[in-house]
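Catalogue entry: protein
Contents: sequence, fold tokens
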Amino acid sequence: MLNFLRIALIAAAAIFAALPATAGEHHKLALQISDNDPEKMNAVLNVASNVSRYYSEKGDEVDIQIVAFNAGFHMLREDTSPVKARLKSFKQGMPNVSFMACDVTLRSMAAKEGKEPPLVANAQHVESGVVTLIELAEKGWTVVRP
């Protein structure tokens, strides 16, 4: 009986070892948007949506940060964003996707325009978009510029 128990434990360990290593993993993706181009903004949102759906269907978790700076900052401006409706739907349906607005760009635009530009409700401030991407990469995030 003791040998049977040992064999059963070894077999169970072998079965668990053979399971895919990716099941239940946690993934981290940072997407860069630095162009004031509706096609590129939509491409970034498409990538975020597709990656989120892919990992969700696998049973994995994924955090996605979309970092907007330079001309891509317009994506997160309440007054100039060509993708404002999609941003609202992300806020409602994909809480794992966050939007980072570069304060360096914000201050530059405010100086040129004489007032601080308004941001969409789900935008979070980061000191520097590029520095944020560097630091996320250093913490193991995958950084992509679609």
